[in-house]
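dude i think i finally got it to work??
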Amino acid sequence: MKITLRLIVSLLLGTALVVFLFSYIQTQAEEKKLNEDLGLRAKLITKSFKEAVEPFLDITERPDRIKQFIGKFKGHVRLIGILVYLKEGTFVTVPDELSQKEMFKNELTESIEKNEPIESVGKWDDKKIHFYAIPLEKDSLIVGSLGVIHDRSYIIQRVMESWKRMAVTFSILAFILSVTTLMIIRWSVTGPIARISEWVKKERLGDTSLTPHQLPEQGDVKKLFFEITRMASSLKAAKLDLVEQTRLNQSGESRWTKERLKDYLRSKLGEAPLYVIANREPYIHRKNGNGKVECIVPASGVVTALDPVLQATGGVWVAHGSGNADRETVDKHNKLSVPPWNPTYSLKRVWLSEEEEKGYYYGFANEGLWPLCHIAHVRPAFNISDWDQYKGVNQKFADSLLEELDSRSPLILIQDYHFALLPKMIKEKRPDAKVAIFWHIPWPNPEAFGICPWQEEILDGMLGSDLISFHTQFHCNNFLDTVDRVLESRIDWTAFGVTREGKTSYVRPFPISVSFASNEEKIIQEPQKKKELLKKYGLEGKNIGIGVDRIDYTKGLLERFKAIGRTLEKYPELQGKLVFVELGAPSRTLIPTYQNHLSEIEKLVSAINSQYGSKDYQPILFLKEHHHQKTIRQFYQIADFCLVSSLHDGMNLVAKEFISERHDEDGVLILSRFTGASHELKSALIINPYDIEETAEAIHQALSMLPEEKQERMKRLRNQVQDQNIYRWAAELITELVKSF
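look at this
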């Protein structure tokens, strides 16, 4: 009722203001017109009187004759006074009261002196009057003046009558507006809002007897309902998460570990096997310069996140065998046990021809989907030949996986944008399989994704999954908006589900993480090891910054190095002291965009080192190669700060890896706000990587920060990463997936 009353009062006030302004303008115009008419009448009368009075000026008894003449006009319509004043002192008036009180004598004198008409308005007794006077002439000389007085009370009366009419009009209009507004509000606003409020209340209390489809869905109320359902879903998820956290805290098991995950999944999955499908393999075998086969762990967020999960649970990882010695290390089924030093699960390699890899991986996936999904201002390229290879490789991976499946219902985790078509292909052959696809990169808005010529096929393929997951709710919303725009389907915003052709897929955010290094896994413990690393790279006594990335245009390396240069320029005392170490892993080197990007980076690094470096000092160490995980961890542990300057990133696990390695609770994380990680790691120094000045200031702040502040920030960051580690991520994701088992 309050909102109705406020709306009606607002409308009435607005209407009253409009009516008042209109009435004021109209009455002013009417009053002006009446005054002009009265003035014109006065001019005509005085002119006539003048012509009649001037002959009497030669007559000796002129005062009597003049008074006798003007007396004839007494009682004329609205004419209430006539005055004749001569310079020698004669003052003749009708009525006599005017001359007795010498009223308007000053105005008459002014008319004589100025030899021009005088017009004014004023009061006479209780009457509103209009006075008009003109000079009298004799032999071309001014001898006096003639004035007339009109009653103008009728003008005031007419104006008041106009105001009364307007008041009546407003009253009628106000009544009509009030009734109409009340009806409209009741019908289209308060009624639907009351029903939505009732639904929200029942949702809060756990009563689902009222479904969203029973609620109004028109106009702005539909938009309100749309947003409320999203909010209700988010609150429901938060409530469930809080309940789970409380349960864990009460049981003393608030943090997930490898062992706990293994026990948990055994209870959840029983004998159901776990399969991971990813383009990137967790262990690559290659021959070094001496022809010796070595095993390396690639720089990959997928590997960083999922390798610990499979080490904890066991299972099969299906991936593209990309190493030049990969074929030499597999059995006849193209499989091997990994990790080599402590085998816990199987790696199955899928072989791709050069043509397949070029079209599927370098072409459609990384020249098409990758720039499409990242706001990095690189134009995506789509070719039909690449699309055909993408479909073919997705089918090849589906066939390779299906070979591994037995009669048990499998649990399948598909990783990333390389396999958008795979869920549907698997479901068509094994409808009993529980399939989740985790999209590690951002999902753009519907307008941006609409660039892709095969958007319908991609969405249809992904909706073969039982669960579709992204890092953030924002990307989930973008995906649902895209499906809603492109495909014929039903979106349930309360459950974040998509129903298409009788099958429902759920869309959920699961921010991925790292395993979090335990105290037993510290690499640099003895001062001697740290000293050796510092000496090897000439870092003794230096302020050290670290960056770990694939060399990719989305990682903001150009912006990062420009910020290093700006820091040295702005704070010259850091020249010779600040060294930034970039561990850059070459990536997608067959794509021209990446080749050009690497060339730009090398030129920029060379320019900065030339400007600020010397024979014994290089401000940027650009170590361009695939680095062993041990080396990366060593640099994390000696760095004063880690700089993550991604221009757009689904999550970015480098930030979490750095935090995980800082057992000393030292070091500062500088983190781009365009990463998914920035939504979780609030104690980092958050930057806009495009703002070079801001990044330079953050670097200086990190280097000059008090030890107590660094320790407090790092403590909070480590607690966050330790609580939200990869084992928790896997448990929550798989729990969501097995709900329908």
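Confidence is low (pLDDT under 50) at residues 247-252.
im so relieved honestly
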